[in-house]
């Protein structure tokens, strides 16, 4: 009888334990935590270094007069469009017209004197043939004629110069463009070479940026860069190439001017607009830099680390991965080493997980897995 009682008790215990094990397994399965992961993003090579720049036209010309005077015509305003050959401004031409008139009068007198000297020379030659004039007489009349003829030529040159000076009182547009700057106003007296306007191309297709001496040797002509005009669209990047690199630095700022030419411009881009230029950085190390969200990076006694999720059958297991971090940027922390681009990094709930914990990923579709 006791034997049967022991067998019955053993059977009940066995059945009870089996049911309990099944409940525990089911409970564990139901309690697997759902987490969200992120794939490290490669660092955009064009965003390694950013410098402020200013948009400018490919051809910008400071127009000025070649003569001095008082501006008596200057009707253009900032932003006005100008066609090639159009009159932009002119000076009071009266002093230069008077000069031309004076030289013309002097030329008329010189021509009359030359004609008289020529007649005397011809007459003296006839007298010399008839032996009614000496050799010295003919030499003197010839010398007089040559001198007056030379004077006529000199005065003609003076007239050309005076006429040219008169023509310089009018300032014409050498190309199509628009007035991007005005340096003077109507009725002002200006000196020779004083800028009047800055005439710019209609198309603004380059930016000028000042690069510090610590970075200038890391870029080369024809390097590709990205240009963003935040005042227009901070999400639109214009492709550009470095077209010029100055060999001399500014004495004040110790920076070098670099010009980047846009591959395609826009009518919305205006001369003088601020821009950000994103330069590439030379070196393979920069190409291996990854970004992860800033809250994914933790630290303990061993240093900085992240939690990565490793595939284990149908679930994932939490693993600790030590990393070397760089600067904190808008995208997150730079990961200099310790991660691969295909790693799955926990991006939230780090305080609720532990090493070797089984989890499931709630955003696998978003990760492309």
Q: At CATH's second level, what is the architecture of the largest domain? A: Beta Barrel
Coarse structural class:
alpha+beta
3D shape: rod-shaped
The amount of beta strand, in percent, is 25-35%
The CATH class of the largest domain turns out to be: Mainly Beta
Report the radius of gyration as a whole number of Å: 44 Å
Q: How many strand segments? A: 25
Specify the helix fraction band. Answer: 25-40%
- Predict the CATH topology of the largest domain: conserved putative lor/sdh protein from methanococcus maripaludis s2 fold
Set out the fold topology.
Layout: H1 2-30, E1 33-35, E2 37-38, E3 41-42, E4 49-56, E5 60-64, E6 69-73, E7 81-82, E8 87-91, H2 94-129, H3 135-167, E9 170-172, E10 177-182, E11 189-190, E12 195-200, E13 206-212, E14 224-228, E15 238-245, E16 255-262, E17 274-279, H4 284-287, E18 290-292, E19 298-300, E20 303-312, E21 315-322, E22 324-329, E23 332-337, E24 345-346, E25 358-361, H5 364-367
Helix pairs in contact: 2-3
């Amino acid at each position: 009888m006791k034997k049967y009682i022991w067998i019955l008790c053993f059977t009940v215990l066995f059945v009870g334990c089996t049911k309990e094990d099944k409940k525990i397994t089911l409970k564990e399965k139901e309690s697997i935590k759902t987490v969200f992961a992120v794939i490290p993003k490669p660092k955009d090579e064009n965003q390694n270094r950013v410098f402020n720049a200013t948009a400018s036209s490919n051809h910008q010309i400071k127009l000025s007069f070649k003569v001095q005077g008082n501006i008596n015509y200057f009707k253009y305003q900032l932003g006005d469009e100008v066609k090639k050959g159009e009159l932009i401004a002119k000076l009071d031409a009266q002093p230069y017209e008077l000069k031309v008139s004076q030289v013309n009068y002097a030329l008329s007198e010189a021509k009359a004197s030359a004609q008289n000297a020529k007649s005397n020379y011809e007459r003296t030659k006839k007298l010399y043939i008839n032996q009614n004039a000496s050799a010295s007489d003919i030499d003197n009349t010839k010398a007089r004629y040559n001198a007056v003829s030379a004077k006529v030529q000199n005065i003609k040159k003076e007239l050309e110069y005076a006429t040219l000076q008169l023509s310089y009182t009018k300032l014409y547009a050498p190309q199509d463009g628009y007035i991007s700057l005005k340096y003077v106003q109507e009725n002002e007296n200006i000196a020779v070479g004083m800028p009047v306007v800055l005439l710019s191309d209609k198309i603004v297709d380059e930016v000028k940026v000042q690069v510090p001496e610590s970075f200038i040797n890391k870029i080369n002509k024809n390097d590709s860069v990205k240009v963003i005009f935040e005042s227009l669209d901070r999400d639109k990047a214009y492709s550009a190439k470095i077209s010029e690199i100055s060999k001399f630095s500014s004495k004040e700022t110790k920076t070098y001017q670099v010009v980047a030419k846009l591959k395609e411009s826009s009518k919305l881009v205006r001369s003088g607009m601020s821009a950000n230029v994103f330069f590439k950085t030379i070196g393979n190390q920069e190409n291996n830099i990854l970004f992860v969200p800033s809250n994914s990076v933790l630290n303990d006694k061993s240093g900085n680390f992240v939690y990565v999720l490793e595939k284990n059958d149908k679930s994932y297991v939490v693993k600790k991965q030590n990393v070397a971090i760089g600067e904190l940027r808008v995208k997150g922390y730079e990961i200099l080493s310790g991660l691969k681009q295909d790693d799955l990094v926990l991006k939230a709930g780090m305080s609720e997980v532990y090493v070797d914990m089984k989890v499931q990923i709630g955003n696998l579709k978003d990760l492309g897995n």
